[in-house]
Amino acid sequence: MSFFDDEDDDPLSPPTRPAPNENYGMRASSSREGSVSGSSSFLDRLRSTVSPPPAQSHSHNERSRASASIFDESNTSISGREYGGSILGEGEEEEDGMGLGLGLGQGLEEEEDEEDMNDVKRLGKIWVRERGTPELGEWKGELIDQVFDKLEQQQKMVNTLRSDPQTSEEEHFKLMLVQTEMERVKYLVRSYVRTRLHKIEKFAHHITLSTDMHHLLSGAELSHARRYTELLHTHFQHSALDSLPEWLRKMDDTYGDGLSMVSKPNRNTPVLIYCRKDCGEITLEGGERAALARGTTHLVKYKLVDRWINLGWAEVL
Amino acid sequence: MALPKHLQNGLTPDELTFLAEEETIDIVPLFSMTRVRLLSGIYGPFTPPSSAKVPLWLALSLKRKRKCRIVPPEWLSIDRVQNVLKEERENAESFCSLPRRFIEISKVLLDVAQDDSMQPSLLRSLLKDLREVRQAKIRIGLQSEGVMRGSYLQVTNLTPLELSELKPFLVKAMGIMQSLEPRGDDDEDEEEGQ
To answer: Where are the compositionally biased (Low complexity) regions (chain A) (predicted)?
Structure first.
């Protein structure tokens, strides 16, 4: 049916995916039998992916109606009906009685379920998180792969429809929108990867030394971290360390005061978090306690809240 | 290197605006088009008198081509903003809760689609007042004793944009305060790296 629809059960299933290539080949050699019908039906299908017939998008429609209702229906009806009310309570106003109803839609919108979000929104979330925390987060390979697959398909579709003279004006306009969005998504992916790369290079030695961190990195990232460390160390050795006395040559020494040469993420860096759920209380240095109630925002040391962040209960801003 | 220095302190206002542009908004299209399927979902159909819900970036892009009218969100009506401003002034202790991307969205809407809001200049001055009242509160809050001494701050109801303005300063100040404190035992192996 379509391979762009994120609502379809299996948008990337084998039967649909190879199709573009096959038909591509057929179009190229148009003398082959059946090629005309093959390519035209393929184009039809492509068209239908840019302009999906109403029936296909049923579930998405539901969702957009749900989000529409965020602003104009009462709180309870949303949480009860559309979202099953799991995370969304009715108590958005309880934090302080002065939201003026203005924060109402806001609160609900923010507490959208992870599953309810589209890929782009999710990508945005993990990007923000990566930017906001001092430590390297988990590599979201699945989501990235998914996004890449979709981008690739969109690109194929754009290329095909663009060069097809039958493509109407309206479709060209749609293609422009599709491309605009692709650029936006690519930017997000790029920035996400760069942020990680920055952290990986900064803590390359630490990462290669601590095997328990390796599951957080993708294969490419890990091998980059290793190679980077190696290069850096060989460089240091050749340029300076080899001329020093043996006991000064180490790269992983610890000074007398406990300062290590291997730089690690500073887990004392404050992070901004928004509590999506009630995260209980934390104990601060001075023995004071701070409550991380739902819907509140805090600037707090990363090491005190990292488990809530990892659980997704607290969202990094 | 991988991440330019000016991006290392956290998200910039531009990046926050970029995120805000993923939020959906209502538009009234001035052209007809069937549904369009994008990575983030399916939008449309666009049939002139009836409205459609699209991501903000799409709305802005259409608006720049004069292909739609943007329906400002309800929270951006003069009445609502006036109420918030009043509340914000009356309550010196805490902040009003605003939609998360309040500042970014209101700014781009006033920049690109000011002819779609009722009284753009009034709205603009209200928003400016609101922002100033909040900023003043933030400054007063930061002056109060002990804020800089600890390494914790409750910042409920400040929007990410306001926080991103504060964060570099606060993080740095807290870092300096920490390095001045006598070192705790458990911190010793974690101090550097920043």
So the answer is: 29-41
